[in-house]
């Protein structure tokens, strides 16, 4: 008799942590910012499964520190960093996580001129 | 053949606080909301692209770097745009060393002046860093036809 294979049980919806939500919000907000080409995980990060280019770590004060690593267009990079930070803060506030958001470090890791395909 | 051109510090406002003020107004690298970090490779890429924009610049890098670069670029190890570019990046300032090949017939001083000007403008405009040095080494001249492959013709019928 052959056992009737059971479909794998669906993973129960587990509540997503603030860290996960902040990471996702930051990625979405950064990608929606004018001048950003894409997220850019560092060579170390890509060894981690699911690495996206956003690192989020809880600090002693309970807030989360974010590092967003980006490939960008040739635009003024400091202003772009500020725009990304503002967008992330707005997204976190919109999701009720504004008080959990700590500093957002923006790492410009690659610049992609017009006509060049991002790595 | 290498020609070192005199490092030329771009003219800056005599009052250093004015440039700092402008920089901080544009968007500080450090703030209580977080830092913006620009990778050295990004500054090098900006410098490389800016140098290549100048008419008269045929290629960048010394002969060994170009030879190795041709191979490594094909396998995707290096970026052609940073070939011949070395940068030193601080918190507010940057210094660059460039190695270029100039087209034969172009006035080298004119080309290097324009490279220096364009690199300075691009780094300051995009990265918000004060460029304190652009040192340029002209390591070779390119003659028209140099790049054409020698036809593989038999010497005998």
Topology of this structure?
The complex is a heterodimer of chains A (119) and B (157).
Chain A: H1 18-31, E1 36-39, E2 54-58, E3 64-72, H2 77-94, E4 101-111
Parallel strand pairs in A: 3-4
Antiparallel strand pairs in A: 1-3, 2-3
Chain B: E1 3-4, H1 16-26, E2 30-31, E3 34-38, H2 40-52, E4 57-60, H3 63-74, E5 85-89, E6 93-103, H4 108-127, E7 130-142
Parallel strand pairs in B: 6-7
Antiparallel strand pairs in B: 1-7, 2-3, 4-6, 5-6
Helix pairs in contact in B: 2-4
What attributes does this structure have?
heterodimer; A: 119 residues; alpha+beta; Alpha-Beta Plaits; 4 strands; globular; B: 157 residues; 5-stranded mixed beta sheet; 36% helix
Here the CATH topology of chain A equals: Alpha-Beta Plaits
Describe the largest sheet of chain A: 4 strands, mixed
Helix residue percentage of chain A: 25-40%
Helix count of chain B? 4
Net shape of chain B: elongated
Verbal overview:
The complex is a heterodimer of chains A (119) and B (157). With 119 residues, chain A is of the alpha+beta class. Chain A has one domain (18-111): Alpha-Beta Plaits, CATH 3.30.70. In chain A, 27% of the residues lie in helices and 24% in strands. Chain A has two helices and four strands, in the order αβββαβ. Chain A has helices spanning 18-31, 77-94; strands at 36-39, 54-58, 64-72, 101-111. In chain A, strands 1, 2, 3 and 4 form a four-stranded mixed β-sheet that branches. In chain A, α1 packs across α2 (77-94). Chain A starts with 17 loop residues before the first helix and ends in an 8-residue tail after the last strand. The model of chain A has no long low-confidence stretch (mean pLDDT 85). Chain B is α+β, with helices and mostly antiparallel strands and 157 residues long. Chain B has four helices and seven strands; from the N terminus they run βαββαβαββαβ. Chain B has helices at residues 16-26, 40-52, 63-74, 108-127; strands at 3-4, 30-31, 34-38, 57-60, 85-89, 93-103, 130-142. In chain B, strands 1, 4, 5, 6 and 7 form a five-stranded mixed β-sheet that branches. Chain B is elongated, with a radius of gyration of 19 Å. Chain B starts with a strand and ends in a 15-residue tail after the last strand. Classes of the chains: A alpha+beta (119), B alpha+beta (157). Chain A binds chain B through residues 66, 74-82, 85, 89, 103-111, 113, and chain B through 23, 26-29, 31-39, 41-42, 45-46, 49, 81, 125-128. β4 of chain A pairs parallel with β3 (34-38) of chain B, so a sheet runs across the interface.
